[in-house]
Q: What sequence folds into this?
């Protein structure tokens, strides 16, 4: 017997399978009650899903209520191999058992070297051959902030090109690059969309008009667009509705930015690590961005975020971008696995 519950306000579905051995109801209800009393009003998933996970493997989790659930959240994209994959657990255990330090800021370690080598082997060749990596704070929004800071430092400009419907994170700069924000330094451009095309057309013609709009806006000296330090986009808009960017449109954005010496930032936080069929979302179009922002699944379910960018942008002096949790060895080991 299988029951299904679809939560309101998001693409989350939890299917309940045969009950596991029943745990004390008081444990389940007590934890939920204490969480409700102590946690911020900003909590989200816990409001829609009143469950208390205590064990997990693969696609399923077991709650303190004794039920087993099919986990369609997948850690918001962090669980590329599902919960507690044996290969990932073995990689984590190996580091713990070795006596290696678990946190070393940005010092070089064998674990970090292995992770970086594996990561660069997945990148578009041109970026892998000329790339630099910056380990950031452990969330994708931290990496977005680092990328925006990087291109503004490298170009000496403050403007930014972003797109309607975009989502890049919850910190100040990342939010301002997302759709619906109001920072006057950010110019919002039309994102091609078949169902809700900004020009009411859709398809290839709608994507072509979106590209031409971008070109004309950038080339018009009276447009009022602040000189852009970079363009940031998602190969597939996630929170905006899971809207894939057309390959030809992505190639046009690459040409437009390259012709005007505007660094192109690909936000691969949600689209990376095989979620679109290729390892990185930009690979479908053959586009090589100047900057790639990565997080979520690259840590093998643990917190990790990095920015990879072409060497010509590496103008930061030592200490210009730092953070305490850049050296999490368990995350790097899990990611390399």
A:
């Amino acid at each position: 017997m299988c029951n299904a519950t679809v939560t309101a306000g998001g693409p989350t579905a939890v299917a309940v399978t045969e009950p596991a051995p029943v745990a004390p109801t008081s444990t389940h209800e007590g934890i939920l009650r204490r969480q409700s009393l102590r946690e911020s009003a900003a909590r989200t998933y816990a409001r829609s899903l009143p469950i208390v996970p205590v064990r997990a493997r693969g696609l399923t989790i077991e709650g303190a209520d004794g039920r087993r659930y099919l986990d369609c959240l997948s850690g918001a994209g962090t669980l590329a191999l599902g919960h507690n994959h044996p290969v990932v657990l073995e990689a984590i255990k190996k580091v713990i058992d070795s006596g290696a330090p678990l946190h070393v800021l940005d010092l070089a370690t064998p674990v970090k070297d292995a992770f970086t080598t594996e990561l660069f082997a997945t990148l578009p060749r041109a970026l892998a051959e000329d790339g630099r990596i910056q380990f950031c704070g452990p969330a994708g929004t931290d990496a977005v902030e680092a990328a925006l800071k990087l291109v503004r430092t490298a170009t000496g400009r403050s403007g930014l090109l972003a797109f309607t419907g975009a989502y890049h994170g919850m910190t100040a700069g990342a939010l301002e690059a997302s759709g619906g924000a109001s920072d006057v330094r950010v110019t919002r451009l039309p994102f091609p969309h078949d169902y809700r095309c900004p020009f009411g057309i859709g398809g290839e013609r709608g994507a072509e008009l979106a590209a031409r709009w971008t070109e004309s806006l950038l080339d018009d000296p009276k447009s009022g667009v602040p000189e852009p330090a970079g363009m940031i986009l998602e190969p597939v808009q996630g929170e905006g509705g899971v809207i894939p960017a057309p390959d030809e449109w992505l190639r046009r954005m690459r040409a437009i930015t390259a012709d005007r010496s505007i660094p192109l930032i690909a936000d691969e936080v949600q689209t990376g690590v095989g979620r679109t069929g290729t390892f990185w979302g930009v690979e479908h179009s053959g586009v090589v961005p100047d900057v790639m922002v990565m997080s979520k699944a690259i840590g093998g379910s643990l917190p990790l975020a990095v920015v990879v960018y072409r060497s010509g942008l590496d103008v930061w002096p030592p200490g210009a971008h730092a953070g305490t949790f850049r050296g999490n060895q368990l995350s790097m080991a899990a990611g390399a696995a």
Remarks:
- The CA atoms of residues 126 and 288 lie 7 Å apart.
- The mean pLDDT is 88.
- The chain has eleven helices and 14 strands.
